[in-house]
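Thread: quick sanity check before group meeting

JM: Hey all, I'm pulling together slides for Thursday and realized we never actually wrote out the predicted structure for the chain we discussed last week. Dropping the sequence here so it's in one place. If anyone has concerns about the input, flag it before I start.
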Amino acid sequence: MNIYKRLGVKEMINAADSYTIIGGSLMPDEVIEAMSEAARAFVSIEELHDAVGKRLAELTRNEAAMVTGGAAAAMAIAAAACMAGADGELAGKLPCAEASRNEILLYSCQNNGFVQAVRLTGAKVIELEDRNPDSDRQLREAITARTACLLYFVSTQFERYAPPLGDVISICRERGVPVIVDAAAQLPPVSNLWAYTEMGVDLVIFSGGKTLRGPQNTGLVVGRADLIAACRAHSSPRSSVGRPMKVSKESLVGLLAAVERYVGLDQEELSRQYEFAVETICAHARRLGLRAERLYPGPTGQSYPRAALYPDPSCGYTAESLQAELKSGDPMIWVGLSEDKAAILVNPLHLQDREIALVCDRLAQLVG
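JM (edit): ok, ran it. Output follows.
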């Protein structure tokens, strides 16, 4: 009997997304084996950080890289780096609202729960107006001697009303203000691992436990070597705001194994697998009398499709009630819901081959 059964916790099929609430993603064998190997010896964590960061920078085509205790931790650590640099004395004083650079710029349309992470540093978040004809002027006027950085979320729902990232980078570069991009879920395409820094972004944050399929409690930061060095000054085992956000030797090695695996995958074959899953589920749903559509891109703009299934009132279900029935059934299947709540959304990102048939069978039981 596996651990979940012994604990009385139900396993589920993830046809929704890389949600933290259901464990993000599943680690492949390569990652688990690397973590197991790392657990068998003591090492210098600082030395391991150096070695792993160097290899991650090579793999992601960046100046430098590091592992954090999740993407939200990366935001706090990156903000601290922009506020205090690598100054060990000031690092020990954070959170500190009195730091000479203690303001972080953010567009109002991008304000969300994750922004709380940067407030852990003591920073003051300054909201900018959403995209308008005066956006460039307003950004220039908002930048002062107290500006530490600008935080920008690259995701369809957060970019919709914000000025284009390229324009933001250009103005911030003129004024010497670092741009931090949260791209936690922005894979695939794999090229995003280097595309944002090639645009001129100073620090880019990815989740280690989503598409990369590394340990769920890891984040990946890539970017300028001087800023990554400053991030290290605010990270465990140093004494700064990142000290509670510890990264174990197992997680350091596990994320490295995950990135090595991901950049080596046949991306075209992955795309074919995602398309096959969506095509199979849509075709099956249509045979059951549901309207089914291929949606593209992914939920935050990633380069993969999803299946949108629209229940007909005659089948006895709304999209919301069908979603609830799938979640409460056996097998338990998590699916998404469209913004207008008219369709359930089936995401192929973490669907295993055998699970495609299980999703189809369960739909047949309910609406067939």
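AS: nice. The CA atoms of residues 42 and 249 lie 9 Å apart. The two ends are 33 Å apart (CA to CA).
JM: adding both to the slides.
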